[in-house]
Amino acid sequence: MVFSMRVQPVRRAISVGLFMAAAGLCSLAQAQSGTPVRLLVGFPAGAGTDAIARTLGEKLKDVLGVPVVVENRAGAGGQIAATVLKSSPADGHTLFLSHDHTISILPQVVKNPGFNPATDFVPVAGFATFANVLAVSGGTPAKSIDEYVKWVRTQKGGKETIGIPAPASIPEFLVKMISDKYKIDVQPAPYRGSAPMTADMLGNQITAGIASVPDFIENHKAGKVRIVASIGAKRQAVLPNVPTFTELGFSNLEDLPYYGIFAPVGTPQPIIDKYGDALQKVLAMPDVKQKLTTMGLTVGYEPQGQFAGRVRTYTQTWEKIIQSSGFKPL
């Protein structure tokens, strides 16, 4: 009887383990059955994140052997797409390609975002980092941040607005840091995405903006806007002549924003591994790496554990900055 009582829990544990393994294999088989994979994007078609998703999706389709459909659920800085992911079955048919704002920043600046990345999502893998940058438009002759600050003081009475792609985003906090450091009154002008903000910069409706390198790089190369500062511990490879904010005397701006792929919590590990392996193969393709690099990304595959650590550290860094700024959640 004693022996039987000891064995039964072991048998139950083995049974549960076999059941979970079988469930994972079943879900993996379903993911391989030809059913399309939805790759959610929280921004509109034509935006930088959308272009990245379509570049990866086209190649993932070939590696996985199933259609990969980019689905734009734009709005609220990726919040809409994130809530769609949360409500999606954890069967491997829905993934979310996101950068840092939706995962690390938005839950800290919105009272009720409708999702919790720590409990609702599981990281699949990371694939790139990038930098947020300050760019000036043709409406100012400035070629450096010091020249821009001087121009604001002499031509604008020390007051100006700087465009940002979304409220309560990292660019908004960078605007405040610029204002504090240089003792000028610059205020954020929120837009619904980087595309309309950049359009206003090109039309000289606003004289400066903060967004990611991919949002500005082509117009910077064409001389239509001038990137004058970037975050990060070192200069961006595509912007070797542009100083970092750290070089300019700012602190706590060394951690780079990230791009990665997420799945609903509960997605079986074999499926997570399969997508991670597929993404690694895609990133190793020279044409993919070159295309993403020209968009201003620093390409580098990060497996699930490493990527989860990056997300955690980055979130903690910006939690301190946001709290010290006195920002009140919206």
Automatic annotation (TrEMBL):
<keyword id="KW-0732">Signal</keyword>
<dbReference type="InterPro" id="IPR005064">
    <property type="entry name" value="BUG"/>
</dbReference>
<dbReference type="Pfam" id="PF03401">
    <property type="entry name" value="TctC"/>
</dbReference>
<protein>
    <submittedName>
        <fullName>Tripartite-type tricarboxylate transporter receptor subunit TctC</fullName>
    </submittedName>
</protein>
<feature type="signal peptide">
    <location>
        <begin position="1"/>
        <end position="31"/>
    </location>
</feature>
<keyword id="KW-0675">Receptor</keyword>
<comment type="similarity">
    <text>Belongs to the UPF0065 (bug) family.</text>
</comment>
<dbReference type="InterPro" id="IPR042100">
    <property type="entry name" value="Bug_dom1"/>
</dbReference>
